[in-house]
């Protein structure tokens, strides 16, 4: 869902059922139960059906069409109130995304979406990944012609609503981009993450430390069995990611840094984490930039596990 161009993050809540029991009277217990069940069925809030990849991609394409036509109505109606977009500029909530339709000057000549995949996290969260091709210019700057995109949809009552969107430029393996000049970001006092954020951020730090140490066993222990990661090279499954981060890892890292973290509960036992990640070191001779990242965590028993992640390249 192209609500924004190279911008930012998160969202949502699970549907609740409301039921009212019938008052006690002299009817037989079975009749009371039947009356109570009938009343509950009559007053229960409608719940959206299980998603299909095709249905969510139809919704996603509606978002891209709205972006092309600079029409914020789609976002108003289909984005969760806790929606977050994430891009190189940072996070953007629903209100800021709606505002961008009038403030950002975009000319979109064409776009196409392909190679879509859907990953469920529990029953109320669906992650879409796909490739986007676009001929667009925003605020005088040409958008990347090809991007890898991720959208998260959550079940809210009788609808599936957008909770997150991000994209990163596609990398041509034959012509990798040159390392961007490192920015001297002004130091600012950072708010301490709340307890919920710190709980998943602590695990995310372990992922980075395992990458730093090229530690296969640590990655195997930390990552959920369905883990996937999106980068400029596209979508990688768990086995590919572990290989890339361990045996095929050509980075020499002294230390890692995770800052500016924020998390949002998007469903029961599912949390979306966004943060800036960077490292002191080099990968294949190139310095490691500080960039925005996202991760989706869910609970396996009492343990939080990362199911999905994405890096937002400059």
Question: What would you say this structure looks like, in words?
Answer:
The structure is a single chain. With 314 residues, the protein is α+β, with helices and mostly antiparallel strands. It folds into two domains: 53-169, Nuclear Transport Factor 2, Chain: A, CATH 3.10.450.50; 195-312, Nuclear Transport Factor 2, Chain: A (Roll). It is 26% helix and 41% strand. The chain is built from seven helices and 14 strands. It has helices at 29-43, 53-69, 73-78, 94-103, 195-213, 216-222, 238-245; strands at 79-87, 90-93, 106-121, 125-138, 141-142, 146-156, 159-169, 228-231, 234-237, 251-267, 270-283, 286-287, 291-300, 303-312. Strands 8, 9, 10, 11, 12, 13 and 14 form a seven-stranded mixed sheet that branches. Strands 3, 4, 5, 6 and 7 form a five-stranded antiparallel sheet that branches. β3 and β4 (125-138) form a beta hairpin. α5 (195-213) packs antiparallel against α6. The longest helix is centred in the middle third of the chain and has 19 residues, at 195-213. The protein is globular and about 45 Å long. The two termini are 20 Å apart. The model is unreliable at 5-30 (pLDDT under 50).
SSE blueprint:
Elements: H1 29-43, H2 53-69, H3 73-78, E1 79-87, E2 90-93, H4 94-103, E3 106-121, E4 125-138, E5 141-142, E6 146-156, E7 159-169, H5 195-213, H6 216-222, E8 228-231, E9 234-237, H7 238-245, E10 251-267, E11 270-283, E12 286-287, E13 291-300, E14 303-312
């Amino acid at each position: 869902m192209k609500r924004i161009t190279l911008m930012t993050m998160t969202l949502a809540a699970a549907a609740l059922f409301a039921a009212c029991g019938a008052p006690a009277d002299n009817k037989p217990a079975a009749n009371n139960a039947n009356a109570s069940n009938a009343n509950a069925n009559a007053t229960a809030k409608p719940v959206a059906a299980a998603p299909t990849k095709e249905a969510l991609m139809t919704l996603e394409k509606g978002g891209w069409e709205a972006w092309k036509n600079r029409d914020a109505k789609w976002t108003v109606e289909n984005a969760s109130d806790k929606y977050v977009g994430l891009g190189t500029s940072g996070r953007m909530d629903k209100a800021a995304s709606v505002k961008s339709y009038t403030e950002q000057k975009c000319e979109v000549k064409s776009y196409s979406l392909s190679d879509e995949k859907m990953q469920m996290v529990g029953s109320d969260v669906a992650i879409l990944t796909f490739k986007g091709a676009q001929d667009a210019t925003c605020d005088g700057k040409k958008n990347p012609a090809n991007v890898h995109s991720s959208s998260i949809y959550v079940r809210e009552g009788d609808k599936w609503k957008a909770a997150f969107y991000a994209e990163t430029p596609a990398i041509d393996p034959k012509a990798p981009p040159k390392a961007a000049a490192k920015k001297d970001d002004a130091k600012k006092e950072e708010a301490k993450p709340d307890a919920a954020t710190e709980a998943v951020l602590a695990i995310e730090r372990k992922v980075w430390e395992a990458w730093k140490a090229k530690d296969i066993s640590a990655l195997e222990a930390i990552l959920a069995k369905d883990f996937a990661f999106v980068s400029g090279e596209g979508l990688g499954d768990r086995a590919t990611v572990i290989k890339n981060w361990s045996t095929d890892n050509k980075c020499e890292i002294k230390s890692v840094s995770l800052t500016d973290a924020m998390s949002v509960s998007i469903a029961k036992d599912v949390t979306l984490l966004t943060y800036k990640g960077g490292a002191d070191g080099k990968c294949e001779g190139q310095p490691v930039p500080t960039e925005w990242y996202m991760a989706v965590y869910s609970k396996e028993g009492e343990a939080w596990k990362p199911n999905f992640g994405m890096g937002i390249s400059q």
